[in-house]
Amino acid sequence: MRELNNVQTAIYLFGAIMMVVGAGSHLLFWDYAPYVFAIGALCFSTMQMLQRYEGPSITIRRLRRIMLLSDVLFLVSAFLMFAMRGNPLGLDQITYLQYVYNKWVVTLLIAAILQLYTTHRISNEMEKEAKKR
After folding, report:
1. By CB neighbour count within 10 A (0-12 exposed, 13-18 middle, 19+ buried), where does 122 fall?
2. CA 13, CA 22: separation in Å to the nearest integer?
3. Any residues with CB less than 8 A from the CB of 7 and at least 6 apart, and which?
4. pLDDT one-digit tens code per residue, 67-83
5. Beta carbons of 41 and 80 less than 8 angstroms apart
6. Model confidence over 95-114: pLDDT tens digits?
7. What gap in Å lies between CA 122 and CA 30, rounded to an integer?
């Protein structure tokens, strides 16, 4: 895996902290929580997308694609947090409540589980690859 430099690592950690603060403060009904979460998700996702894997392992490449899917789900969660503030999609009330209202929690949970799984598996696969060399 291509390592991030110091500035990119700081942006990556800043994004992760902002996502946690944004999600937690949204539960406390803070008005700026979606903005904080969106900035964090954008920072976190872009820095994670900058990490590249140039090795031969198909397993790590597959896990990286799953990780990129979770990054997209983080961004979808940010969009759904904003969509919860009103009905920007112009849906009728029943459809809005069924498909949009509070669904950011579901996408965030799926993204977090995928992140945990891929992070753990990638580190194990990288150790295996290092032992082979």
Report:
1. buried
2. 14
3. none
4. 999 999 999 999 999 88
5. no
6. 877 777 788 999 999 999 99
7. 36
